[in-house]
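Q: Given only this backbone (263 positions), what sequence would you predict?
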């Protein structure tokens, strides 16, 4: 007898597709070199994700010299959300206030970079040297940590709602022989273990993605084996999707030939 699909199953499919499509886009562009019709699905993916991401080439991972359809930080965020959702039964839901340790790193890294960018960039390029620009490694790590925390807060709730059960949200009864301090340390260790393991999985993905990028690309390559160098474009700072199929913005909608690989 087939198992009936539940809400959480659809949620997992949605997350899986959401994470896979930006990585599929550069693969489609590579295949389009032999089969031009594949420009169409690739460019549609880039267009859809352009509404949620700046798609700056220097802040994105690449495959076959083409950038992902979203940046390194977004890749980390949604990979973290997806992995924490996959292993949702391996940990207990965190309270909303435990989101703070997951938010602070991305807020500092992204926030300081945004301020530095606004102060140091004009439409023609960099003016002076911004006092802080992040690297793709830091963008991915802070993004994935945030995504893990967000999913550890939300995914158990979605699972319990879909299964009409709140077992994932209930806390275990304290042991009578354990002191308050011991209980606190035990709960803290349990709360820390899952994010560390999930974060480690994200890092392994990033390491593999950078090595694959290096192996498949000849022009646009990572700065090192972790793509950890700071990249500061001197010209055309606001050019989006430089290593993608066509210009971002309104041109996507009015230049239909761009969807088929034209200029």
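A: Predicted residues:
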């Amino acid at each position: 007898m087939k198992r009936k699909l539940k809400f959480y199953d659809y949620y997992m499919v949605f997350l899986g597709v959401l994470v896979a499509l930006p990585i599929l886009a550069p693969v489609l562009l590579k295949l389009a070199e032999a089969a031009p019709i594949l420009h169409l699905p690739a460019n549609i993916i880039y267009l859809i994700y352009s509404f949620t991401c700046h798609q700056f080439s220097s802040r994105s991972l690449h495959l076959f010299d083409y950038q992902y359809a979203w940046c390194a930080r977004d890749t980390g965020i949604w990979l973290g959300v997806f992995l924490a959702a996959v292993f949702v039964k391996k940990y207990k839901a965190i309270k909303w206030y435990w989101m703070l340790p997951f938010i602070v790193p991305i807020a500092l890294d992204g926030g300081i970079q945004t301020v530095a960018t606004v102060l140091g960039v004009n439409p023609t390029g960099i003016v002076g040297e911004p006092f802080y620009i992040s690297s793709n490694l830091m963008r991915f790590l802070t993004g994935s940590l945030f995504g893990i925390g967000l999913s550890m807060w939300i995914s158990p709730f979605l699972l319990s709602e879909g299964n009409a059960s709140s077992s994932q949200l209930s806390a275990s009864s304290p042991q009578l022989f354990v002191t308050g301090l011991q209980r606190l340390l035990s709960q803290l260790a349990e709360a820390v273990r899952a994010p560390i393991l999930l974060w480690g999985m994200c890092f392994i993905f990033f390491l593999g993605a950078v090595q694959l990028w290096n192996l498949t690309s000849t022009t646009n390559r990572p700065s090192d084996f972790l793509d950890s160098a700071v990249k500061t474009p001197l010209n055309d700072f606001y050019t989006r999707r430089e290593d993608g199929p066509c210009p971002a913005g309104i041109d996507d909608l009015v230049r239909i030939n761009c969807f088929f690989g034209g200029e």
